[in-house]
Design brief:
By secondary structure, the chain is an alpha+beta fold. The relative contact order is 0.19.
C-alpha cells in the first residue's frame, strides 16, 4: 500500500470492531486515472488481488462494490474529470484483507459526503443507485474525511469472510 497505508487504515478502524494491524493477511492498492475506463482497471485489479488471496468466490459481490465506489469517486469527487493540480491519478483503490474481513476503500480528493438516494426517489433513473448497491452487497460501508497531508475522503465497504477451515487433527493409525 505504500506510505499512505496507515493514513487510510486509521479511519477504517474507527467504528469497527478492533482489528490488530499485525493480523492483516494482505493489502494491495492501485492508483486510478480520472477517466471512466479506470472502473474496468479497478475490477481487473480486484480480480487479480482476490485470486492471489484465494477469494475468487467473492469476486462478483466485491467487484460490484468496487465498481460503484470508483464510479462515484470519478463522477462526484471529480466533476467533469477535473484533476487536482499535482495529482495525475487522484483516485486510489485499496483492498485490505484480514482472516475474517475484507475492506475495499476508495480515496478521492473531495471532502463532500457521499449521499445515498432516498428510497422514494425515481427508481427508474439510470443512475443514483450506487450506494444502495454498496449497502446491499457489503456487510457495512461508511466514509471518513482524510487528515494530515492527504486531502479528501475515503469511502469504504466491509465484507465478512468465512474463517479459514481448520483441518481436524490427524490420528495415528495402528
Amino acid at each position: 500500500m505504500g506510505t499512505n497505508g496507515s493514513t487510510v487504515l486509521a479511519p477504517l478502524r474507527q467504528g469497527l470492531p478492533p482489528i490488530d494491524p499485525s493480523g492483516a493477511a494482505g493489502a494491495a492498492s492501485c492508483a486510478l486515472p480520472a477517466r471512466y475506463e479506470a472502473v474496468r482497471s479497478a475490477r481487473e485489479f480486484t480480480r487479480t488481488t482476490l485470486g492471489e488471496w484465494t477469494l475468487d468466490d467473492r469476486f462478483d459481490d466485491i467487484a460490484l462494490v468496487v465498481s460503484e465506489l470508483v464510479t462515484n469517486a470519478l463522477r462526484h469527487a471529480l466533476p467533469g474529470g477535473a484533476v487536482v493540480p499535482g495529482q495525475e491519478r487522484p483516485v486510489r483503490l485499496h483492498l485490505m484483507r484480514w482472516n475474517t474481513r475484507l475492506v475495499c476503500a476508495v480515496r478521492d480528493p473531495s471532502r463532500e459526503s457521499p449521499e445515498a438516494r432516498e428510497a422514494d426517489e425515481d427508481c427508474a433513473a439510470e443512475s443514483g443507485r450506487g450506494l444502495f448497491l454498496v449497502e446491499s452487497f457489503s456487510d457495512s460501508w461508511g466514509w471518513h474525511p482524510l487528515t494530515g497531508t492527504l486531502n479528501g475522503k475515503v469511502v469504504w465497504a466491509v465484507f465478512s469472510l468465512q474463517a479459514p477451515a481448520v483441518a481436524p487433527p490427524r490420528t495415528a493409525e495402528a
